[in-house]
Amino acid sequence: MNSRKLMYIAIVVMCVIAVVLAVYLQSGKQPSSNRNTTNNVKTEESQETLKKEFDQMFNNVVELNDYDTSNIKKLESGKNIVYTAYSSEAKEDNKYELDINIPVINIDNKVAAEFNSITQELFANKTAGVIDNAKAYTIYSISYTGYINGDILSVIIKSTLKEGSNAQRTIVETYNYNLKTEKSVSIFDVLSEKNITQDALNSKVNTVITNAIKDANKIQLTGYETYSRDINSDIYNIENIESFFLGEDGSLYVLFPYGNNSFTSEMDIVKF
Q1: How many other CB atoms are found less than 10 A from the CB of residue 82?
Q2: Contact 147/62 with Cβ under 8 angstroms?
Q3: Contacts of 90-97 spanning 24+ positions with Cβ under 8 A
Q4: Total domain count for the chain?
Q5: pLDDT at 249
Q6: Distance between CA atoms of 178 and 191, rounded to whole angstroms?
Q7: pLDDT level of residue 13 (50, 70, 90 thresholds)
Q8: Which of 156, 136, 134 has its CA nearest to residue 145?
Q9: Are 246 and 233 in contact (CB under 8 A)?
């Protein structure tokens, strides 16, 4: 038997072994020495799944879920309680590329007015600034979504911003409003509504952030820069959590959109 034939047989044997090993691993019967690695992979995939799920929510529509809004005092009587106030797709060579959908909460009261004021300051003013005075080529998009669960209206606005050579930012703002009491809804209100203890939320946040730090450290060892989290930061304290919402099925999403304050698109998501 010549050396070429021996090499061919060896390659076939290696391929068979690789296939058998792949089936063995996928069956969930991993050796105990790999258990931690497998758990880490599952955790990472879970975050990736949540981020994809989050990104796919934004259709510039708020799902009313058959909620009766007829008795809600509106700013514009003929429109929904949330609608697109400004929409534009525009491109100007060497200046900007825009895909903008800015919502307004169409409710006539002080809380809704405060929410709309934040939208104006964070998103509408930035859009005008890009159009009028972009100092570097800018790619800017704004989209939104929202849901009603019980009496709670959640509106989520997401923007991505790339200015010149700066790193891309993902900025997220969430509004939670009780349509019955006409008051802003806090994270504590939602925890009580869903019977989630503060300890349970703290534990899940700690797990998600700890795993994110481990994953970032691994990437940094390869020479790439990643966003640095600090598990002891006050942003992870429940009383400081401001980015959250109730999704289509009533699930609670707690967000840590680091791009709100830094040039990054990194985000961690905790879901109950």
Answers
A1: 26
A2: yes
A3: 90/131, 94/137, 95/134, 95/137, 95/138, 96/130, 96/131, 96/134, 96/137, 96/138, 96/139, 96/140, 97/137, 97/138, 97/139, 97/140
A4: 1
A5: 94
A6: 14
A7: very low
A8: 156
A9: no
Q: Give every CB contact of residue 150 below 8 A, 6+ residues apart in sequence.
A: 193
- On whether residue 30 sits in a domain, the answer given is no
Question: Is 27 a member of any domain?
Answer: no
Print the domain residue range for 123.
53-271
CA-nearest of 216, 188, 184, 189 to 202 is 188
Residue 14 lies in a domain: no
How confident is the model at residue 34, as a pLDDT? 36
Residue 18 lies in a domain: no
Residue 206 is inside which H or E element, if any?
Answer: helix 198-221
**Angle between helical axes of 198-221 and 35-55 (0-180°, round to 10):** 100
Q: Summarize pLDDT for 149-175 with one digit per residue, the tens.
A: 999 999 999 999 999 999 999 999 999
Neighbours of 264 (CB within 10 A): 17
> Average pLDDT for residues 128-144, to the nearest whole number?
96
Q: What's the pLDDT tens digit per position in 27-80? A: 343 333 333 333 433 344 488 899 999 999 999 999 999 999 999 999 999 999
Check: CB of residue 62 under 8 Å from CB of residue 176: no
Residue 158's CATH number = 3.30.565.40
Q: Can you give the pTM of this predicted structure?
A: 0.82
- Asked if 180 and 109 count as a contact pair (C-beta separation under 8 A), the reply is no
DSSP state of 3: H
